[in-house]
């Protein structure tokens, strides 16, 4: 009986109810990428260049951080969510969704396929405009 009373006393003092997580820092800019613009302007660029889950490309796993839906089962919402993680709103032109397919001599980063020869490529400009629009109210 004494052991049970002691156990109950310790149990009531040990763990307490979980606390609420801390409030996130504030003062930053709220960024909301536009899904409709992605679906009409960005997704077609990805599809045209075969940026999807075929073969080794963008199928997830250890190959890279950008996973996209396969061509036979396009899921634009999934692709939007994945591409949104490749966007750096504070420095839009530095976003991996732009730098990886950009030619190295134009400021790109390593990636096996170079879709954009320069930053003046119309498709590059279209994706950049989509990202930049997120920073405006």
Task: Provide a concise account of the structure shown.
With 137 residues, the protein is mainly α. The chain has helices at residues 2-13, 35-48, 76-84, 96-99, 122-134.
SSE layout:
Blueprint: H1 2-13, H2 35-48, H3 76-84, H4 96-99, H5 122-134
Helix pairs in contact: 2-3, 2-5
Task: Give structural notes.
- 38% of the residues lie in helices and 0% in strands.
- The protein has 137 residues and is mainly α.
- It has one domain.
- The chain starts with a helix and ends with a helix.
- The relative contact order is 0.13.
- The mean pLDDT is 78.
Query: What does the largest sheet look like?
Result: none
Give the number of DSSP strands.
Answer: 0
**What is the average of the pLDDT values?**
78
Estimated structural class? mainly alpha
Strand content: under 5%
Radius of gyration: 23 Å
Q: Cα distance, first to last residue?
A: 66 Å
| Helical percentage | 25-40%
Tertiary shape:
globular
Q: What's the domain count? A: 1
Ranges where pLDDT stays below 50 over 5 or more residues in a row are none
How would you spell out the order of helices and strands? HHHHH
User: Number of helical runs?
Assistant: 5
């Amino acid at each position: 009986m004494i052991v049970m009373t002691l156990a109950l006393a310790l149990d009531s003092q040990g763990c307490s109810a979980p606390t609420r997580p801390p409030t996130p820092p504030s003062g930053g800019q709220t960024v909301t990428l536009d899904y409709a613009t992605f679906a009409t302007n960005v997704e077609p660029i990805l599809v045209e260049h075969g940026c999807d889950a075929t073969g080794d490309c963008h199928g997830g796993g250890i190959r890279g951080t950008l996973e996209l839906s396969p061509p036979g089962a396009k899921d634009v919402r999934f692709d939007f969510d994945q591409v949104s993680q490749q966007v750096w709103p504070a420095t839009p032109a530095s976003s991996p969704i732009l730098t990886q397919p950009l030619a190295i001599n134009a400021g790109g980063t390593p990636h096996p396929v170079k879709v954009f020869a320069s930053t003046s490529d119309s498709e590059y400009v279209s994706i950049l405009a989509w990202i930049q629009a997120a920073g405006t109210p």
